[in-house]
Design a protein that fits this description.
Layout lengths: L1 H9 L3 H30 L3 H4 L6 H37 L2 H7 L4 H4 L1 H38 L11 E2 L5 E8 L6 E8 L8 E12 L5 E14 L13 E14 L21 H31 L6 H12 L5 H6 L3 H67 L6 H25 L5 H24 L7 H12 L19 H21 L8 H6 L5 H17 L5 H7 L17 H9 L1 H39 L7 H5 L2 H15 L1
Antiparallel strand pairs: 1-2, 2-3, 3-4, 4-5, 5-6
Helix pairs in contact: 2-4, 4-7, 4-11, 4-12, 7-11, 8-11, 11-12, 11-13, 12-13, 15-17, 15-20, 18-20
Length: 669
């Protein structure tokens, strides 16, 4: 109903409504899936803060709520990529996209309604980062700090020391979950330090928490208490008082704050992620001004202390230099005249001054790095608000054209492609952010690396899909790979259900016998086992026209014999290899490609060895053709007994004489 009202208001066509429905439902579903995946991935970073803390459902609900609000801008691009890919893949798989294009509607025209929706989603993403995201980040960090400072619930493990109770280490040999009894208890209380630790041993015991969850009550049975009384030690005495107590029943109260208290987190407000775009740009001016003032101050201090003394004039400096050059002042001789005590004091003063200067420089360097780091973080966050919103548009113009090209819907191929694209974007974006944050790359280069890489890809896919170009034709890439590696398919000829014209067996037999004679002559004239001259291979033209003609005549004969009903002949036909007609002479048909390949030694060696391999394979193929020709001719003589089995006898038959006469007549024409 809402879509119909919108269509009447904005005159949206039925096609736009149809595509919006296809995309909208998928976007809602994929958004929640992407949001869940991102939240689970984000949750692993803070799983230690949640486990064993005894947090209430209200606190956990707030934790996941703020986390979800922070991750929504990241889920938008991935959801748009996946939903657009599936939507247009479904349209292509069901031939609906073909029908749309046949009606004269281009791909961009069919995408116009979704482009408007994606622009709106990009605006929503920017609004989340500008308004909701900073508030959610502040609340999330405040909640996380409170969770980190909350003491865990007492879950005493068996067989190891437990240090979750402040000031005590507790060891339990065995415990019963049903009764809550603990057996083989050992407690180290270190309220007075490690030297004054009290050791408590007990056969069994029970542990309870007070109602206000501020203390633990530990009831022990059949045990002993060992403790040093160092606080009562007499000054200068070597004897330390010692106390040992044996008890059958004893209660111990341990401090334990098990409540949840919301902590103050005022420092979070200075984090760049807690600020809007306007606030970041405003604070950047203040940060840069403060950094410049600190830099000038450090420079002035270094200039006064390390480079020159302002009380010494230029003439005094020149005079002192002349005295040193004239050996009037020799510092080494002055130092040697000093007494050992004075020498030692001078060395101590020099070392002390050097250490002070080094410490001062280290402190100033660390402080300057921290100031620059804060400035870079603000710049990164400001750029990130824009790039993350633009990624919604970029991912749409990648997903929709890809779906139209691959024409595969569902959750199979689209999910794989979406994950690969998102991984590439995540690696580029995360690596660029880290490099920019650590001042290895400039901020603009690091943050725009992923966006600038995927934008040309989106433009390329959109252009190819709009022009119906074949980009992901698997058969084309498979054929290219097979040609590069020298691989080939086998023949797969089968019996035809309907045969319009039977083979001319006598003519086919004549052609096969003549091809065999030409192959024998070719083998005797061409030494295929010898290495060819590299100069002729790469720098001189020379296609093997003989092999091209032989293979052409053989394929015509095979095509005619493929109309046979005899299964044995079909089996022989499938034995014929698919012969490459020029790969044994040179790598490429184009002369300039061969020259470039020959001049570059690594590729030249590879293609030269590849060509030698093709020569060996051609020799093997020729012998295979000779053997198969012989088998086919024998079979034809069985099917047609009047067919001679030798070339000389065939050439004397009236049928072949007439056939040759017609061929000569056609050639003369």
């Amino acid at each position: 109903m809402l879509i119909e009202c919108m269509s009447s208001m904005f005159r949206i066509k039925k096609l736009d409504i149809f595509i919006i429905k296809q995309f909208g439902l998928l976007f809602i579903g994929t958004f929640f899936i992407c949001q869940f995946v991102l939240m689970m991935q984000f949750l692993w970073r803070y799983v230690d803060e949640l486990i064993g803390k005894g947090l209430s459902l209200e606190v956990l609900a707030q934790f996941f709520w703020y986390m979800g609000l922070m991750l929504m801008p990241q889920a938008f691009p991935l959801a748009i990529l996946l939903s657009s890919l599936i939507a247009f893949g479904n349209l292509g798989e069901s031939s609906e996209l073909t029908a749309i294009k046949s009606a004269g509607i281009s791909l961009l025209q069919s995408m116009r309604s979704l482009i408007v929706i994606v622009i709106i989603v990009s605006g929503i993403s920017f609004y989340f980062q500008e308004v909701i995201g900073p508030r959610s980040f502040i609340s999330f960090r405040q909640l996380l700090i409170s969770m980190q400072q909350k003491n865990p619930e007492v879950e005493i493990p068996e067989g190891i020391f437990y240090d979750g109770i402040s000031g005590s280490n507790l060891y339990v040999q065995k415990k019963e979950m049903e009764t809550g009894m603990l057996y083989g208890i050992m407690i180290y209380r270190m309220n007075g330090g490690y030297e004054d630790a009290a050791v408590i041993l007990a056969d069994s015991g029970k542990m309870q928490t007070t109602e206000e969850k501020k203390h633990l009550i530990l009831t022990l049975y059949s045990g002993e208490w060992f403790e040093n009384m160092r606080s009562q030690d007499v000054a200068g005495s070597a004897n330390v008082p010692y106390r040992r107590e044996t008890f059958s029943n004893k209660r111990i109260v341990l401090d334990f704050d098990g409540g949840f208290n919301m902590q103050e987190a005022g420092w979070v407000a200075s984090d760049a992620r807690s600020k809007s775009m306007g606030k970041i740009l405003h604070d950047l001016d203040s940060i840069r001004e403060f950094n410049d003032s600190v830099g000038h101050q450090f420079y002035n201090e270094a200039k006064q202390v390390g480079f020159y003394l302002p009380t010494i004039s230029k003439s005094d400096s020149l005079k002192a230099r002349e005295e040193v050059q004239k050996d009037i002042i020799n510092f080494d001789s002055i130092y040697k005249k000093l007494s050992p005590e004075v020498k030692q004091n001078v060395m101590k003063m020099a070392v002390n001054d050097a250490q002070i200067a080094s410490t001062d420089l280290e402190f100033k360097g660390s402080y300057s790095d921290a100031l620059n780091h804060n400035e870079r973080l603000h710049m990164i966050e400001a750029i990130n608000k824009v790039t993350l919103s633009l990624s919604c548009l970029i991912f749409f113009f990648i997903g929709a054209p890809l779906g139209a090209i691959i024409r595969k819907g569902g959750l199979g191929v689209p999910v794989i492609i979406s994950v690969l694209v998102f991984i590439i974007y995540y690696i580029l974006e995360n690596s660029g952010m880290r490099m920019a944050r650590d001042n290895i790359w400039t901020v603009w280069f690091g943050k725009l690396l992923g966006t600038c890489t995927l934008t040309p890809i989106a433009v390329f896919f959109t252009y190819k899909a709009n022009n119906d170009s074949v980009v992901f034709n698997i058969d084309l890439y498979k054929q290219l790979l097979f040609r590069m590696l020298g691989l080939r398919d086998k023949r797969h000829l089968s019996s035809k259900e309907v045969i319009i014209e039977d083979p001319i067996y006598m003519a086919d037999s004549y052609h096969l016998l003549r091809i065999s004679e030409e192959i024998k002559q070719y083998i005797s004239e061409h030494e295929l086992l010898h290495l060819p001259n590299p100069i002729k291979v790469f720098f001189r033209p020379g296609d093997d026209q003989t092999i091209e003609r032989i293979v052409g005549e053989l394929e015509e004969t095979i095509e005619d014999l493929a109309n046979t009903r005899d299964r044995q002949i079909l089996a022989y036909l499938n034995r014929y290899p698919l012969v490459a007609t020029h790969a044994h002479t040179r790598p490429f048909r184009r002369k300039w490609l061969n020259i470039i390949t020959g001049l570059f030694l690594p590729t030249g060696v590879f293609f030269y060895l590849r060509m030698c391999r093709f020569r060996l394979r051609l020799r093997k193929d020729l012998y295979m053709i000779l053997d198969t020709n012989q088998q086919v001719v024998k079979r034809i003589s069985v099917i047609v007994p009047s067919t001679p089995s030798t070339l000389e006898e065939l050439e004397k038959t009236p049928f072949i004489i007439e056939l040759l006469r017609n061929i000569d007549h056609d050639n003369n024409k």
